[in-house]
Amino acid sequence: MDAAGAAVGADPVGAALNASSTRPFDRATATRIASAFLPAHPLGNRWDYYYTRTKLGSDPLYPGVLQALRGSQAPLLDLGCGLGLLAHALRLDGQAMAYRGVDNDAAKIGRARKVADRSALADTRFEVVDLTGGPSPHQGSVAILDVLQYLEASTQWTLIDEAIAMLTPGARLVIRTTLGDASRRGRTSRVADRLANLIGWMQSRPRCYPDIDAMRTRLAEAGLRTTFSPLYGNPPFNNWLIVATL
Ligand SMILES: C[S@@+](CC[C@H](N)C(=O)[O-])C[C@H]1O[C@@H](n2cnc3c(N)ncnc32)[C@H](O)[C@@H]1O
Question: Strand 173-178 vs strand 124-128: parallel, antiparallel, or unpaired?
Fold first, then answer.
């Protein structure tokens, strides 16, 4: 990666991030997507609504991922999908590929399923799956967004190899991850991940931050074309978007 933090690597699929895909959603779009997570009852719990609105309005994750997936109709498997925000962002963006989200947090999957049903998101499924046991079979695109650091290094590599094997021509492997380095962003990311676990928002605790050179080598050895781009936005974390294709 270059010193200025610009994207490095050939643009494999015309999915290079542009100015709008490195900015968070505008307030209206963030509120529109988050509104799906409002409780049915006015006195119900609004935590998911406020969390998703804040995340969507401050983190360029989803605009970056939408850009990376545009132009492919391949079914998408979202590994560690959380509340399934990506499914909502995809449909709002007019991307209609089949979507399957999996996560080991059964409570989040229950809420993801309920909200997706209530929002009538077409061709969208959610399942409880623990990635340490390997994902279920899939052919198409794969998203692994802010998940790798919760897995041991050996599980990360197994998962990445399995995701590579799922790719079909034109499909994309889209990974967002915090990279393990000694920068201030790297340190802030580690503290924030630990805190999220301590306050109970994240059931899993961070275990291992991927190494960018090892990741680049693994994807190249698999014969993939890749792009690595910083995807920070407002949060002070060391987040990078990696897009790979056959
Ligand atoms: C930071 S959240 C990211 C959620 C979603 N990918 C997104 O970007 O909005 C990390 C997710 O990984 C899930 N996760 C962590 N360890 C997991 C495992 N072993 N199997 C499945 N999901 C896991 C957590 O439950 C959590 O929902």
Answer: unpaired
- Calculate how far, in angstroms, residue 132's C-alpha sits from the geometric centre of ligand 1: 12
Q: What is the pLDDT of residues 53-100, one digit of tens each?
A: 999 999 999 999 999 999 999 999 999 999 999 999 999 999 999 999
CB within 6 Å of ligand 1 — which residues?
A: 61, 80-82, 85, 103-105, 108, 130-132, 145-147, 150, 203-204
**Dist. CA 200 → ligand 1 center (Å):** 13
Domain 19-28+58-245 -> CATH class: alpha beta
pTM of the model: 0.90
In DSSP notation, 107-164 reads: HHHHHHHHHHHHTT-TTEEEEE--GGG-PPP--SEEEEES-GGGS-HHHHHHHHHHHH
Residue 13 contacts residue 74 (beta carbons within 8 Å): no
Instruction: Looking at the CA of residue 144, tell me the nearest atom of ligand 1.
Output: 6
Residue 153 has a pLDDT of 92
